[in-house]
Every structure is written in structure tokens, then in C-alpha cells.
Amino acid sequence: MFxxxxxxxxxxxxxxxRKKRRKWIFFSGSFLIGLFLLIYLFVLPSxxxxxxxxxxxxxxxxxxxxxxxxIEGDVKERGTLFQSLxxxxxxxxxxxxxxxxxxxxxxxxxxxxxxxRFITDVEGELVKxxxxxxxxEVYEVEKNPQGYIAQRKKVPLETRLVKxxxxxxSSLFEAIDAAEEHxxxxxxxxxxxxxxxxxxxxxxxxxxxxxxxxxxxxxxxFIQYGKIHAVEYQRGEKTIRGIEYKEGYYSDQGIxxxxxxxxxxxxxxxxxxxxxxxxxxxxxxxxxxxxxVDYAAPPGTPxxxxxxxxxxxxxxxxxxxxxxxxxxxxxxxxxxGHLSGFGRGIRKGVRVRQQQIIGYVGxxxxxxxxxxxxxxxxxxxxxxxxKETFPTGFPIEKGEMEKFHERREEMLVWLQGESPYSxxxxxxKIELSW
Length: 434
What we know:
Blueprint: H1 4-7, H2 14-43, E1 68-75, H3 81-87, H4 92-102, E2 114-121, E3 126-134, E4 137-144, E5 147-153, E6 158-167, H5 172-178, H6 183-192, E7 208-218, E8 221-235, E9 238-245, E10 248-250, E11 271-273, E12 276-280, E13 287-290, E14 292-296, E15 302-304, E16 309-316, E17 322-327, E18 332-342, E19 351-352, E20 357-361, E21 371-378, E22 381-383, H7 401-415, E23 422-426, E24 429-432
Antiparallel strand pairs: 1-2, 2-3, 3-4, 4-5, 6-7, 6-23, 7-8, 8-9, 9-10, 11-14, 12-13, 14-21, 15-20, 16-17, 16-19, 17-18, 18-20, 18-21, 21-22, 23-24
Helix pairs in contact: 3-4, 5-6
């Protein structure tokens, strides 16, 4: 027989069975928790505790730049560096030191202006002195471990080859201004063509010109013009061109632009009256012949000889006032009247060179204002100097003609077109910089 009591020991006692299951669940959970703690404490790698919190470490102190004091000033054109520094209350000991250190480099008797910077530390000790006599002439006095030393600073310059284009509306000067260039370029351009064009009477509205010229810069600051490589002047169908070759200027055919006679006896000035065989005399009245050209100019304007020659007379000549007469080759004579004075060494019998100063514009004799009365005589007869045709210049030697042609072709490429442009000249090479 089966013992029903042993097979179902809790039959009839449900509370005891439920109690036993609870114990089993409790012991199982405790076992799992204990196992998890053992794995966490002994098997997994330990993590170091975080460092204790505290204030951050301070950054190392920054190096402070020494404080400097700068005094800036300029030297007046007729002043001295010593006086200018004194006017800025700079101590005499520093002035003496600066002058003594710069003396081997600077001729203070010829100083004409300039700017400077006087730099000291907080204790008033000189750190550096910079004197800029011109944009390209800079000197420094600076302190080093051995004391104070002076030197001339090398100023980096850049040269650009530039084509300038313009059109005449009233004068060459006005046209140069319109091209955003400066007066020295107008003067240099006119002097190259001085044997071809009288810029008082030949210039007409609508004339065009081109110049290929070097321009020198200090950074972006224009300093001065360099050599002119080529010029061109065009009126209608007529074109006058000059190509630089071995310090001279030549036509396309290799003929020198320099001739026996200049077109005008002085530099730019406005013309007051052109050649006329009959005009009303401004002082004597009535219609009287006037066989010359009057060039109005400020008193003291230099007058130069239009050609090589000999002084035939020099002195007072009634209505012409102070006058110089020159005798030239081929029966030519030139007369210069109303002068305020004569050039150095000008007297009868002295030989003169073309463009040599022979006198100065004045208003002596029968004259209503400062001007030059210029006259041309050929074989005893007055000639119109504005229309006279003079012999041409000399050609380039045959042995040089091939090289000149190469130079000419190079410049003709530059002169082509109606747009200005420039090229940077770098160590003998030309790099394009439109």
C-alpha cells in the first residue's frame, strides 16, 4: 500500500510549503548578491579615487615688454638738427652723443630738413635715435652691449618700368597731372624733345604722348623717376619718337634727337606773343616790326644758349636793355633781350655751350613786364625761330646699329596700345605686374 502521507508530506499543510519556498528564494538571492560583490571587489580592476578638489595652480606670470617713450620731430629746411632737438627739451648730453655719432655719416652743413624719433626707456636713457634725412636716407643711433653705435640703414627700394599715356587739353603739365604723374616727368619729357618741339607754341589740344619711364618706390610710396626709356609725341598723322640708347635718344632710323639748335631758349613758361612782322609796340605805340618771340616768365628764370657759339656782345643795348648776342656756325646769330642779369662768366668773346646759362629773365629796357625777347638772325636777316628748320642730328655708328634695332623693337612693343601698364624690375629681370 502506498503511504499517502509520505508521498505528499505537506498535503493538508499549505502554509508550511509556502514558508519553505520563501526560505529558498531568500537564500538564492543572498547567494547571488554575495557572488556579485565578490566579482566587483576582487575580479574587476579598481579605479583610483578622484584627487582632492582645491584651487587651480596659477599661470606663470607673462613677460612684460619694456615701456618706451618716443619723441618725434622734424628739422626745418633752414634749421639744424641740434636746434630741433633742443626745442624738444632733449637733454644736452643726448644731443651731443647723437651729433657726434652721426657726424661721420651726415654732413650737417648740407642738411635740408628731415624727420627723427628719439626713443628712451622709463629712466630716460636713450634706446634708439632714428633720423630720416629723406625717404631713402635713414640713419640710426642704437645702444648695444658695447655702447652706442651709428649706421646708415639700407632702405629697400623697388623699381617699376611704367608706360604713361596722356592727351593735351591745355598744356603738357596739365596732361601729366591728369595722368596722375608729377612735374619732373613733364620737364624731363620736354627736355628730351627740346630739339623737336617748342612746348610753348607747338602744343595743341588733342596731341597725345607716351612715356616709358622707371619709377622708384619705397613700399607703396613713390620716391622719384628713374631713366626714361622711350618717348612718343603724336599730332594727327605726325609722330615724333625717341628711343634711349647709351644715354642718348634717337629716332626710329637711329638719328640723334640732339640737334645744333634747340627749339626754345628756356624751359616751360607761357608764351606771350608769337613772331609777327607788324604789331603795336606796348610802350612806343604805333605799328612797329617785332622780329622775335616773347617768352613771359618770372624774373630770374634762367635762359640758356640755343646752340654752341661765341658771345658777340654782352651789355646794355637801349630798348633791349641788358642783351646777349651769340654768334653760331652757318651764319646764324641769336639775340636775348630785357635780361635782369648775365650768366656767370658771360662776356664778349667767350665760347658757350648749348643749354649753358647765359642770363636771366628780366624787364630792362623798353619792357612792360618780365619776359625774354628772343630773336634769330641768318646771314644778316631776321628769321622766324618758330618756323626755322635746323640741320638734323648725327646717326648712330654702323657698328651699333644692330644693337640699337634690338633696343628699338623692345621699346616699340612697349609703346604699342593705348593702355598704361607697368613691369616690376627685379635684380635685372622684368616681371609683369599689370
